Amino acid sequence: MKKFVYIFIVLFTLSWGCNDANFLDREPTNILIDDQIWGDNSLILSVVADLYDRIPEFQTISNWWNYADFDEGFGSAFGDYWRHKNSDWGYGEWAINWKDYYKLMREVNLFIQKADSELTDDLQTADKARFVAEGRFIRASIYFEMVKRMGGVPLILEPLTYDFGGDPSYLEYPRSKESEIYDFVINELEAIKNDLPNDVNVKGRATKGLVLAMQARAAIYAGSIAKYGATTPNVSLPGGEVGIPASMADGYYTKALSAAEELINSGTYALYNKKENLAENFTNLFLDKSGNTEVIFVKDYKLQSGKVQPFTVQNQPWSSAEDLEGGRLNPSLNLVQSFELLDNTFSTFETNTSEGDYVYYNSPKDIFAGRDARLEGTIIIPGSKFKGKELDIWAGYIDADGNITTGSTYGQRKHFPTEADPEIPVVGYDGPIDELEFSAQTGFYCRKFMDTATGSGQRGLNSEVWWVRYRLSEVYLNAAEAAFELGNTTKAADYLNVVRRRAGFTTDLTAADMSFDRIVHERKVELAFEGHILWDMKRWRLAHIVWNGESVELTNNPEKADEVSNRIFALWPYKYYAPESPNHGKYIFKEVLPRVVTNADRFRLGNYYSEINDETVNNNNLIIKNPNQN
Prior knowledge:
The chain has a domain at about 55-75 and about 300-465 and about 565-595. About 30% of the residues lie in helices and about 5% in strands. The protein has helices spanning about 35, 40-50, 100-115, 125-150, 180-190, 210-230, 250-265, 280-285, 310-315, 335, 375-380, 470-485, 490-500, 515-525, 535-540, 545, 615-620; strands at about 75, 295-300, 330, 380, 385, 390, 395-400, 405, 415, 425, 445, 465-470, 570-575, 585-590. Helix 2 packs parallel to helix 4 (about 125-150), helix 4 packs antiparallel against helix 5 and helix 6 runs parallel beside helix 12. Pfam families: SusD-like_3, SusD_RagB. Belongs to the SusD family.
């Protein structure tokens, strides 16, 4: 790091108490010297709060627009239409700022050094061990986020200091192998797990359960890169900085399964099951902060502390909005049709008969009947309610000749010659209407993470719904994937069935049903809008296949992991207008490509690892760049 001298400056807090309940109430206000900080649990906790808050993330409820980068969602605001017009992703996408994160790493290393020194000897032994373990957890988390993006990076475990001797070359470290970073993360977590509390009620700090969950996630990533990286041999570097040997795959899968099973079998956590209605139950698991046994680790928000997030304001349905904003993120039909039928089969939505006539539905919800409860738990579909109000999602009237009457703004009214009223609504107040921002341009709104509390849709209040970083359901899916890859299809099916039963499935999958497609599908529907899609597609080496830049129609095989899905599609309900027909007033549906979707996304081989910029290489001659980016 030739040209940079990193100075450790930490902002500390003076606040009352040090329990988890007021963890969010800490705000950095003073810079304190060592002997004032390290003998006081509350002040050390202030430092920890700052470090937790700076762990890098991608696709969260605080930056919802990144959900529209792939095939899960559509950006319904004017400023996001470009996302559906761009063909190629830049090589610098999803990268970390090298300089900033090694500055953060230096701070974390210095925290660990101080916390593990004689400065903290006045603390209780368990408290001291916990703070050190938390520092090591945060460091492992940052390295995990870095390796996901960049591949192998310099592994620095001490706070480097420039001696002003004129030669900073001793501060230059080469990139470690990608496998060495994963090994560090997995081994570091193993080393600290017993120094952390095993407490289901601790959600904002590291616990033993969190360490096991992260071990399982990191190991499953490494294992799949090792296995499926063999299909993209050009995505590698000869020194191992990018790419993991296939021979290491089973070892990582074994570690993933071991960590996942240790957590599952501990009994500390349990899947959320509080509501009889299965869709409401799934929705509520992301909202309920009281006795939530599924959630393991969160980024929390609290109205009383002023730390809030705007996801509900920005994505509330327009017809029930509490402010002049909403509907910015529309789930795609690509995702919606991935939710299978409750008989364990996959089917696209029936819009036409084999003779070419429309299929008529009494209610706009009927087309979605008999499907995985997670569909309505994740997505607001036509005919649904939000905050007690039924939404108004329909695209217009269609007559027997196929002529469409619609509007250009929310709930627009027009004259119908055959109607007694001078004017009637000809389109729903929520749309869908092409290029009308905040409307449901795909026919859908988001439900997951949407706050149902009164006032949460107002800009002056916002929401305190937490961002769930780790939860038990993902651990079950990691266990299932690891078991499948190790050849234990019976165990894999058992773990998937635990998750699926909560979604309403009554017929269990068997070992014979297990396939890679099943593994991929289950993660897609269970973890939608939780920030997994990019990393999963990269580690399976599916990204360049599914997002291949070809402008193709929506797949009829949503259960296939390698089906192309690089343009966002919509499903629009229309009211059938034919007063003499028994189908008058019923609903028909049309599959639509929104007008602003003009290009298909293309993920190139060079996108598997983010670009290391010239500035970084110029500052450290030992750093080599990632492949396929010329």
